[in-house]
Here is the input.
Amino acid sequence: MPTTISQQLLQKLSKQISGELFFDNLHKSIYATDASVYRKIPLAVAYPKDKEDIKKLIAFATEQGITLIPRTAGTSLAGQCVGDGIIVDVSKHFTKLLAFDEKARTVTVEPGIIRDELNHFLNSYGLFFAPNTSTSNRCMIGGMVGNNSSGTTSIQYGVTRDKVLELDTILSDGSEVTFGTINHDKLIDKQQGNHLENKIYKSIYSVLCREDIQQEIRNEFPKMSIHRRNTGYAVDCLLNSSMFSETEIPFNISKLLCGSEGTLAFTTAITLQLDVLPPPKKIVVAAHFNSIQESMEAVLIAMKHNLYTCELMDKTILDCTKNNREQLKNRFFVEGNPQAILLLEVCADTDKEVETLAKNLIEDLKANKFGYAYPQLYNEDINKATALRSAGLGLLGNIVGDAKAVACIEDTAVDLVDLPAYIADFTKMMDSYDQKAVYYAHAGAGEIHLRPILNLKKSDDVKLFKTITTEVANLVKKYKGSFSGEHGDGIVRGSFLPIMIGTDNYELLKNIKYTFDPNNVFNKGKIIDAFPMDESLRYEVNRIEPEIDTILDFSDSLGILRATEKCNGSGDCRKLPNAGGTMCPSYR
Here is the structure.
């Protein structure tokens, strides 16, 4: 049930902060959803102007027993940005680039800076922040850190967690703490004292030193060979540091905070390691296949060729582009009626080198009898094909009618060698439910975005929503995979963590959560003690949908209501004009 706080208390809080606080119905409705299937009406929406505002919000939330939901662009797919407390939107005021070191290839930014805007600045220095999501023209670095985002480039450059060096945070007691790399002596020193920071270091170090806990983490967490892992808090990454194993990886609690979805601390500044821009000469081989399974087996061959991207589009995605005016022109390279296309990018420093790489890739696929067409894309044609792939998520919302491709099992990741068998098992399972799922995205990383087609306005499909998610969780566990590769646990997957990592490890994560945040001030109901995944959905179940008369003709969408429901909340309308305009993309 929504928390009740008097208007007088909210008015008093609004006068205490330098930024803005809104609690009218319009703002609360706008912020009730993200890109997930969930809807929760918040108590209020805050736009803090500085760190002092955040401290005041934390103090208010602690005193009133409510939660704060940190938010940037709101493109999250697992319900991370919805809640019945105060939404704290840092996208308005926390947008500065604070420091840049060209020689060290590092940058420090506030959480509200847009990923593509950051890279626009870095481009002239020959550098970039590598993780590249399909929402990169509006998603923000704070959200990428909170979610440990990956995108198309992870097979070559890694994920956001690999790039985070330091996080400036405000803890649940209002103290400011910077988490970064520390050596053993500094770690011992950090444990001395009674401040919350000391308690955090002492608690984490004491439990991870225990051999039984170390063994339980190694036994139950996803395989370390899966580089896209968002399974609870990343204690397995901390365990892989030089503090606990024979590696040279430094101990850094910011690696734990990355992917924690704002449930442990409030981040105010982020220091990132940057990469040198990829080689300038590129070719994308758009390999066409007659079945999903054939494309999955082909991935194992293709990934031997040092690819920079390896992205999948299935027939459902491709068919969606036929009726989209903007994407129709980007289908120029599609030959025949493929069941799947893999976009395989090779890069080199010279034209001759890149042509050789593409030739070798195609010959290898042909030698193994994978694929039937292999058009090579260059220059602007690559951008068009990439736009087609990136548009997949939004286009799925354009399926006419109440049945939609639902985000619940879309983020599973397995070891690459397990991918063909996993997809085969998954397809059999979908067939048993008479489901034709959608397959697309990051094949080269062992992560295919799989979505069942469900009508969440019907109670039977809501039950199926949970049933399918539960069965897929068990299937992922069979392959020791990650239930979330990049979209996070949030509401939709949080309650499955005991299955994915075992009850003992789940208790360890609970201990970490409540050491950082004993009063559950930060993003309650996500990851730990998660809200039920089949409640607080966008639609009222089994409602008789109203027929709305309009002057304009919306019959191609079955009426204006369903035309409106094409919006999946992925925030494409937030992108800046230089990214292609801000008109509602669903309407376009």
The CA atoms of residues 116 and 137 lie 5 Å apart. The two ends are 37 Å apart (CA to CA).
